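Project outcomes to date are best conveyed with an example. Our students and postdoctoral researchers have been running inverse folding experiments weekly, and each run begins with a structure described purely in tokens. The record below, which covers 349 residues, was selected by the lab manager from last quarter's runs and is presented without edits.
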């Protein structure tokens, strides 16, 4: 299969490109090389330095392409209002322009890199009142150290449950809103163009080649950087936030499996891409510290970041049943190994 990969010089896109090549696919790699993610504006050998927002100017690269793996995006917390135009330009407009170019070129299959952030808060259950959809946490509660999510009916702290792909989409940041928009554009394109979209909702991705000290780093890399500076990792809130951390090699393999599914049907389908092994943020910090054999232990600070959610823990069921995807690297093995894995350097400031 001939596959065009956007964001092909990035952390995840690079891993996807390698995995596709190893499975015998013919890869056409494209990357804008934005400074937030790359040390150099020059792409690696063989990668086309192009902008997905201008995709209709390079539709020749889509000639003979069977499918597109769209990994390119501006990422980050997206907590500032001033970030909105950047996300809208690169993620929303970029995806729309790419879909239009694919339609012109007659390419009818897309694997879309989506994210767990589309869910906002995860799934919650009150022992007395059943499933609940909580409102965003209030700043006054967070300032007072009340980090849990409470039942709107009785005020008791809710218990988290696994998030299925049919959960409501509740973006809580500019970045999250842009990922929801990407999914919506892709779903509309699938209907109008009689095409196929497999949206992979990545959970917390980590692994070798991750960039350090950038918005693309993720909390595991930030913990590692603190340890390398001789500092204790700073854990926000009370460290009990529930997440799923998935290794980049598993994410790349999920993309290969998704490509095998694009010819099976038409329309839009979303899948969680996760390890299936929930961990708390405090546990993540400790696993990275253990792997580094660091004398500094993680410190729970009680601070918080606006826009963060309490728990998002994914169900791996649909991906296992329909794509045949089950993660091979559990956080208990992958995170300690990540503590000494090679990373990318920081881009220039």
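After processing, the design step wrote out the following sequence:
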């Amino acid at each position: 299969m001939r596959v065009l990969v956007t964001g092909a010089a990035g952390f995840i896109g690079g891993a996807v490109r390698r995995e596709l090549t190893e499975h015998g696919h013919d890869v056409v790699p494209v990357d804008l090389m934005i400074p937030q993610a790359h040390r150099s504006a020059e792409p690696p050998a063989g990668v086309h330095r192009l902008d997905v927002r201008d995709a209709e100017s390079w539709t020749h690269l889509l000639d003979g392409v069977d499918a597109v793996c769209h990994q390119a995006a501006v990422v980050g917390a997206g907590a500032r209002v001033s970030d909105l135009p950047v996300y809208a330009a690169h993620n929303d407009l970029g995806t729309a322009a790419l879909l239009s170019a694919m339609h012109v070129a007659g390419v009818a299959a897309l694997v879309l890199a989506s994210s767990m952030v589309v869910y906002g808060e995860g799934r919650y259950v009150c022992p007395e009142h059943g499933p609940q959809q909580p409102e965003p946490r209030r700043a006054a509660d967070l300032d007072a150290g009340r980090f849990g999510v409470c039942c709107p009916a009785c005020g008791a702290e809710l218990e988290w449950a696994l998030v299925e792909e049919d959960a409501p989409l509740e973006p809580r940041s500019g970045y999250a809103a842009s990922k929801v928009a990407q999914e919506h554009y892709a779903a509309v394109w699938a209907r109008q163009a009689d095409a196929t979209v497999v949206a992979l909702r990545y959970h917390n991705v980590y692994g070798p080649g991750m960039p350090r000290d950038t918005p693309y780093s993720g909390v595991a890399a930030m913990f590692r950087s603190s340890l390398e500076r001789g500092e204790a990792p700073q854990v926000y809130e009370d460290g009990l936030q529930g997440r799923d951390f998935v290794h980049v090699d598993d994410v790349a393999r999920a993309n290969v499996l998704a490509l095998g599914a694009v010819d099976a049907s038409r329309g839009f389908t979303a899948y969680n891409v996760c390890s299936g092994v929930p961990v708390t943020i405090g546990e993540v910090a400790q696993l990275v510290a253990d792997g580094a054999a660091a004398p500094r232990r993680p410190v729970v600070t009680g601070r918080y970041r606006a826009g963060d959610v309490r728990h998002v823990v994914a169900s791996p069921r649909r991906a296992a049943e329909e794509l045949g995807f089950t993660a091979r690297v559990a956080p208990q093995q992958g995170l300690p190994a990540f503590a000494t894995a090679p990373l990318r350097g920081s881009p220039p400031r």
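The first strand starts at residue 2 and ends at 6. The first helix runs from residue 11 to 22. The training component of this project remains on track.
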